[in-house]
Structures are given as structure tokens and as C-alpha cells.
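thread: overnight batch results

M.L. [08:02]
morning all. the overnight job finished for the chain we discussed friday. pasting input first so we're all looking at the same thing
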Amino acid sequence: MRRRSAAGARTVYKLCSLLLQYPDDELRAAAGELREAVRGLPRSRAAQALDEFMEWWTACDPLALEEHYVQSFDLDKRSGLYLTFYAKGDKRERGMALVRLKQMYRACGLPLEGTELPDYLPVMLEFAAAAPEGRGELVLHEHRAALELVRLSLHDHQDPYARLLDAVCLTLGEASATDLASVRRLIGDGPPQELVGLEPFAPPDVMPELEARR
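M.L. [08:03]
and the structure it wrote out:
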């Protein structure tokens, strides 16, 4: 049962890694395979979130989908997919965090390939899907506050992509009290300098579907 659960979690991470990437022709051409993979997941709230996202994603006009993606992740820095940015900004500390991630990937036999930064969420999820047991979840747990912050922003805009972040966070389990405190601190302290001037977050009643572990 535990092995089956771990396999399901890896599939969720892999699917979210793919679906959080730019919806180009190649990705959209795989829509049928992606939907079948979602339907093959064990029944869970994470699987339901993925299924709801796929309903919207497959029905969306290709050009509208591309424009929506750019608006959601490229033009709105409050929901960008580079997770170390939220706590570190573009400071020297962020560079150190990126180096640490690269070293962790390499130590697990999964060196970073391509041009993306190691804190790009699809890259982190791809690592979580392929890494030795527990290593992938460790990386995601370390960046749980940033994950929740992006999720809140997407929910605030009623963005369907929020369902992918829901699926990831549901698979990881409940956020700890420390994670939630970190999210509140990031919201309360304000964004890094690059975000000054943007409207503040307006999260629904602290956290959607989240309670601290007791």
C-alpha cells in the first residue's frame, strides 16, 4: 500500500511538472496521454484537483491558453514559479540557495539539464517525481511556504492553475504551523524590492483548505 501511495505521489508530481510548463504545441499534443494518466490515479482530493484542471485545460482555446499562462506566471510576479525569489528576492542569498539545489539534484544522480534555474517549480517537481524515496518531498517541504504563497495568489485570482498547486500541496500533506507562520510572515513583511508597488495579497480567510498540524 505504501509503495502504491508513493507511486501515485510521483505521478502527481510528474503531471504537475508538465502541466505547469508553457502550453506549447508539443505539450498540448500530449493532452490525451495526460488525461489518461490523471484518470489512472488512485482516487484522492489531489486526483480530483488534477481532473478539474484538465477539464478546463483541454477545453481552452490554444491561443487563449497561452495568453492565460503568460498572464498568470510571467506577468504577475506574485505567482511566478521561481520559488526562492519570494524569500530571497534577487539577493546573494538566492544565489546560494540555487547552488544548494543544484548540488542536491546532482547528489541524487539527477543533475540539472537545460537552461532553467533549479528553483523553477516544474524542475523541482520533476526532481520530486524521479528522486530516491523522500528526497523529492524534502525539497518541496523546504519550499512549502513559497508553494502556499503562489497557491494563495492563484486562488485570489480564481485561476484554474491553482488546482495544480492544490494537487501538489494535498500530496505533500497538511502544512505545518511553522510553514503557515512563514507564509503569514512573507505576506505581512511585503514582497521583495522587485514587487514593491503591486497590490498586496488578499488571501481568503488566512488559507484555503489548510489547517496547521496539531
